[in-house]
Amino acid sequence: MSSLSMARAREAAASLDPRLYQITMLAGLLSYGLLWLNFEVQPANATVILATALAAQYAGTQLWGLPKFDPKSALISGLSLCLLLRTNSPIVAGMAAYLAIASKFVLRLDDKHVFNPTNFALVVMLSLGLGWVSPGQWGREAYAAFLTACLGGLVVNRAARSDVTYGFLATYIALVMGRALWLGDPLAIPLHHLHNGALLIFAFFMISDPKTTPNSRAGRMVFAAMVALGALFVQFGLYRPNGLLWALVCCAPVVPLLDRLLTGTRYDWALPHGTAAPRIRTTPALVRIGASALIPTLFTGRGAR
Predict the structure, then answer these.
(1) Per mean pLDDT, which range of 46-50, 54-58, 69-73, 294-298 is the poorest?
(2) Counting CB atoms within 10 angstroms of each CB, which of 16, 100, 189, 273 has the fewest?
(3) pLDDT tens across 102-142, in order?
(4) CB atoms within 10 A of CB 243
(5) Would you give the distance in Å from CA 2 to the centre of its chain?
(6) Alpha carbon distances (Å) from 202 to 5, 186, 291
């Protein structure tokens, strides 16, 4: 291959939307889990989640006057919910998908949505006692295959700001292993704790979301360390499960402060190298309309009429 052809190939890879690779990985894992690993995923719930996520994204696109309907982020949120959220009710499944997508449009600050959509929906469902998270459902082979695919995604999509994933994993693994060594536990215990499919989805699809992480690299490293410390505290200090989810939702409101203290370029999916993105018009009237649709669901379990 000539140097010109190689340069064009590298340019094409750099311009590829990272979400396409993420969707492929998540969809492949979900299909593999349903067909071969007997994941506790009800096909009806998965269908409701994906359909609701896409419908909510389309409604938000129309209400907020965005240039075009883009389903990619909604698909990532929906597929992640399919893999993590467990409920016996299709209504609850649809509610979680609706909350995830609605939060992107309603809960915004400095023209960025505050919470990762999947993380927000899972925490709300857990808080209301309407569902649970199933982190330990994968076999060793599926875990290894998905880890390899995730790492490959970081290499292929370097522009997706994967530094926060590396920073979080390095800090979290060091904390978990260090705690085990401090207590004199055998290494099998922290290794078992880290052998967790939910950890992979969290590290590669939640905390790494460019739309909810600080704009600067220094800010992202601080944020990653905060989330790792918070997760360790929730898990081993408060003795609550799902420490990763709780830590991320609690640390997310700090991102605007980090953006002010450590300035950087706001990420745009359509511009992989981080060129400043156009701002979404968010008027008070639209915020009130969006809140009227979101708040009744949060506190009553019913959508706005």
Answers:
(1) 294-298
(2) 273
(3) 999 999 887 788 999 999 999 999 999 999 887 666 666 66
(4) 21
(5) 39
(6) 36, 25, 27
